[in-house]
Amino acid sequence: MQMGVDILSWLLLTCGGLFVLVGGIGALRMPDLYTRMHAASVTDGIAPILIVGGLILQAGITLASIKLAAILIFLLLTGPAASNALASAAVLSGHRPGNASEMSAEEEA
Amino acid sequence: MEYLGLYNYWIAVVLLMTGFYAVVAKRNMVKKLIGLSLFQAAVFLMYITMGKVDGGTAPIYTAAGGEQIFSNPLPQVLILTAIVVGISTTALGLAIVVRTKEEYGTIEEDEIQQIDEHTSGGQQ
Amino acid sequence: MSAVFGIFLLTLMLITAIAVVRTRNLFVATTLMGIFSLLLASNFFLLDAADVALTEAAVGAGISTVLFLSALSLTAEQEKPGHRGRLVALAVVLVTTLALLHATLDSPLLGDINAPVHQHVAPWYIDNTPLAIDVPNVVTAVLASFRGFDTLGEVFVVFTAGIGVMFLLAHYPQKPPHQPHHGLRHYLIQRLVGRTVIPFILLFGFYVQFHGDFGPGGGFQAGTLIAAGIILFALLEGPNSAIKVIPSGVLKGMVAGGALLYGGVGVATMLLGGTFLDYSVLSSDPVAGQHLGILLIELGVGITVTGVLLSIFFAFASRKHF
Question: Do the Cβ atoms of C162 and C311 come closer than 8 Å?
């Protein structure tokens, strides 16, 4: 039983780590600001659920699990709101989706 | 292989010199303040590294009694104070930078010097 | 295994620091400094410094980023490229780095229990904290009671920074009182999430304030967290609404009141017969007196830090943009 819980938690943690890696690679390789934000928001969405889920399984039924669950709820609330704010700021400052060459030239500056 | 135990100090030294380079060689005043923050962070890293004890935990007595090995609490107390003092200095420095921008119109050090020489040369 | 993790985090910190120095866009440098502070806080946690990690995360990654961004919105965004004199500085820095790296070869290795730093004063503090103060967090006991003078000085440094910024920035030129666009008034998602989250941030700030005896926490971290919550409110609703929530008179009272409370506890202990900041005389039982003293001074620290950080933020935020 303990072995099963351990294996499950390690599986969740590894999958969460893989999703963070995917988000990071996407944030680097995507051509446009909006596609990069979409890729990076993976680390705001699925990755905390998997990682904190794995940690909760490791912690068992203790006070630490409740604190971890609270952290998860906080991350899930604020992460997408921050991405939304970033995208709104980009729209307000004139970035239009799809201008790939304009974006990369501006970001080199 | 034992030199790996010194890696913290090496990183602290390189961070120290990176921050110092930013303070000395950059012309922009905000960049100098950022370099000062890097410098302070390197000093914090060096102190907290000195306080770590092998097999120790954070210096908080837990309910489980017995012989507990704690990491040294004294560097942590020093660095707590130092972090707060660092942010106070940074805030005051940023206020001075904002006022400098309003008075001189620039925050590049060499342009400020030129404006100063220009006005003091005109007054003499 | 945690040694490998520590080495990984330290290398990331180095790469981030070099990127901070090399980039010319100051907003990018500020964001990278936020990442650097979080990596540094993780490293502190690996080195068993839980209090310091909490403070570094709250102050370095939170408040420092906000202050830099407010200052950058009032000044320039780009740095002009550097020129002459850089090679000399680089040479001096390289020579000094090599000299310092040679000097670190004499340091004790990481975690060595026979290092001189662990021999003299530290075991006395660790052993005497349960006897004299009976507070589980040794760092809080040393900070608030054994080394209370240093913390008094620190509160006064924070106070001085606050009034310094208020002298420099809290006057002309101000923004006109009528603004067409208050904060993020038209952004429903941020305002909704903010309103949901701000009470919990403030609650967590109070929890950290009073829990500093039993775990990582204390006045500084709590003051920073509460200030961060109110700064979030000011970002969402505009500085004018935030000034109505905490009027500037109350802010000034908080800035001075916390330091006054701390000094007042010291004077009260002198009046009760002890020396300055000797909390044992505050109650009939010395240990209970210590608890009461630590509670009061941490409260003073928290009040001052909150007031100062909010005053600095409002001073920057209500400055007229050029």
Answer: yes
